[in-house]
Design a protein that fits this description.
This protein starts with a strand and ends with a helix. Helices cover 50% and strands 15% of the residues. It has a domain at 2-26 and 79-115 and 167-223: P-loop containing nucleotide triphosphate hydrolases (Rossmann fold). The protein has a five-stranded parallel β-sheet. It has a three-stranded antiparallel β-sheet with strand order 6-5-7. It has nine helices and eight strands. It binds adenosine monophosphate (AMP). Adenosine monophosphate binds next to α2 and α3. Residues 126-163 are annotated as: LID.
Amino acid sequence: MRIVFLGPPGAGKGTQAETLSREKKLSHISSGNLLREAVENGTETGRKAQQHINKGQLVPDKIVVDIIRERIVKNDCKNGFILDGFPRTLSQAIVLDEMLKNLGNKLDMVFYFAISKESIVLRLSGRRICATCGANYHIKYVPSLEDGICDKCGGKLYQRTDDKLETVLERIKVYHEQTEDLINYYKKNGILKEIESESNVESITENILKVIDNASKSASFVNLGVV
Ligand code: AMP
């Protein structure tokens, strides 16, 4: 199964992708994580990407597309994957369709995480991340037991540079300008599933799993010639 998670920053795509990848044995591919890794490793790609990330703007299509092209052909993607944060522009979506077509595949579903701007700002400005294991916290909603310290590994918690308020506002603006069009693109393709993303993490996971299970059931009916 090949799935895309589409939605504004802070909608919970990463958290849901982690759970779903465990439940359904799918690889979780986060374009943001891949880019941040490149930045940390000091690669040329990382150096080119960093300036855009820090400003809350999109990294040029070519850089991101190359990273994803390399990633989706790896062995752990054979059973399928969840793309989290990619595509983010219409041209990335078109290239992705082509890439998959060349591999004899296609996207099965695109989940659109619907959430208000107010909730995004609250979520992102309070988000903290463990520098050692990458675990996610929120100063109000998911606080660590000890302030600034990860419950899981004792690592230090930090705030992503692009989670600072002014960068968050820029990221939301960029989302409206460049990514929102994808909702219609996938709606037209008939594979868009909207997920209300204001509620708690568990009920969102439940809804996503329901949609996937219902789709698998109808696919089996079609294969059996029932419909
Ligand atoms: P994320 O972790 O998904 O919020 O991504 C963090 C940042 O990485 C974004 O604000 C962009 O600067 C960059 N980025 C991630 N994915 C993409 C993409 N598909 N296209 C362009 N830039 C991206």
